[in-house]
User: What shape does this take?
Amino acid sequence: MTTQASAAAENHIPAENIETATPLLQIRDLKKRFSLSGDFLEQLRFKGGKLVRHQEHVHAINGVNLDISRGEALCVVGESGCGKSTVARTVMGLLSPSEGEIHYDGQRIDHLSSRQLLPYRKRMQMIFQNPYASLNPRMTIQQTLEEPLRLHHPKWNRQQIADKVEEVMRSVGIDPDWGKRFGHEFSGGQRQRIAIARALAVDPEFIVADEPISALDVSIQAQVLNLLMEAQHERNLTYLFITHDLAVVEHFGTRVAVMYLGTVCEIATTATLFAKPRHPYTQALLSSIPRLEDDRPQHIRLEGEVPTPVNLPSGCVFHGRCPYANARCRQEIPLLQMQNDGTRVACHAVEEGRL
Amino acid sequence: MTMTTNKAPSRLDRFRDSFVWYSFKRDRTAQLCLAVFLCLVVAAFSAPLLAPTDPYDLRQIDIMASELPPFWIDGADEQYSLGTDAQGRDLWSIILYGTRVSLLIGFGAVILQALLGVTFGLMAGYLGGRVDAFLMRLADIQLSFSTLMVAIVVGAVVKATLGGAFYSQYAVLMLVLIIGLAEWPQYARTVRASVLAEKGKEYVDAARVMGLRSKRIMFRHVLPNTLSPIFVISTVQIANAIISEAALSFLGLGMPETHPSLGSLIKAGFDYIQSGSWWITLIPGAVLVVLVLSINLLGDWLRDVMNPRLYKG
Assistant: This one.
């Protein structure tokens, strides 16, 4: 059913869009389930006098389709547990998808072995959320930065590697003389710069950033964000930027994908999304941004809580909390539909013009 | 900013700044234990220099001088300060040589345990899944065989196939093998537990994203971060291995009487304890207790120092 769904969704993309520019990264019907039931013996249950195998899964991603074009910064937003990080980790091959495909520069990469993936590792890199955990505490900064270079440029001599490390340290604003120090001797912002330097060392063209500034002090966040934007400008990078900070999205993203409970509910350019949110969830999300000029904020208050990803709701995953939900929303899963301004929205109410 | 000086601290400087050294400087028990332990190790390994006689050389043994008491008891011969055993060997010399054998077996067995246990523990923890299940069940099975049973089986097989003389000749190696094989699961379990904790950290993900091979990530990234528990367990395991060896030797499954360890000395003297020659058993026994106690107390101190809940770093 879902493959049909995605085929239908793709039909709404204008044909010339697909042909003129092959996206750098294509995510097709990506699904990821995590088993909750343990190993085979733990799955066996007695039911009605018979042994049956009982399995439960967390449905972290349920059919995500995303295209990322060269040079853009696609931001993925959504609340905790909506699957944004799982998408990032699946794209990087840290998790293998349960279903679906990932294409990089036209080549399918999700089923490759780690050795076949090696050339892609040089082209796509990742920046992690927690700079206190992403640097090996037993390695010096120099060792940390040299390691990817040694791996991806086995023919380089010592001097070439040292030069590259120095260049990349300067480019992120870290004094190359500090290379002999260990990660714990640096502040959070400095560590995140070092983590960025490690990602940039192999000259990638695509960077997945998984909430790279959310663990940092507010005063440092802007610095690191600007560093990422400078790097994008100088090195012509493409970003998949995972965040839950809408102010960052407005500042950083060229396009935004809004996720809810493992599905993408709206994709739009940043300006369009902030000016005219279509999906009821996006509207509620944007209304929650605190604004200085408001003395009476008009938050859209959603009732209830996010449903459990173990037993997904039927139909639209948002129907239980949506003020516009009707019978169709409770039964039929909405697909991403192209709107006339290029936004794609997965909502029956928008499609039917009820909203 | 604290990083105004750009000179990186050397390894020695870092050790001097470390909590381990700080704690050691203030802990009298640890200092005393380390001193006692080092004395025993130095004495044991310079046995050929310190010992007045060579107990392995039959020509130096005088059977007429057997069961002489130590110097503070009447009837002692001043040539033999701690007395002699039932075969007329100088007890002081043979304790030095015996301690050397015990230490060799203790350290050798722990090195073997660590090699097996760390490798299997790393693989089980990092690779997970079936490898984990297989290795951990193997560890469970291994643990259900006691050291004694492994010793009996290995001893019986080797003696039956290669002969008793061969077994006596390579007894040290055999005991290292037996104790090493019997107790690697302790290491494997400890290492696996800390690998599981480290595996979830983002630096491991970063290494994977870089494209490093599993082997390199395991040994270069994960292993160095699990060293503290390995260190702590090693001290306990050395003491355990020395005791295991003594127990096996006491039961006659260990070192032969011609090349005794502390355990075989205790056993050899045990038959004479009723006839009044208590020193043949009790003096090697006391040395064993002091040796094991000093290692155990050092291990306790190390565990306190390296416990991340007490001290983070």
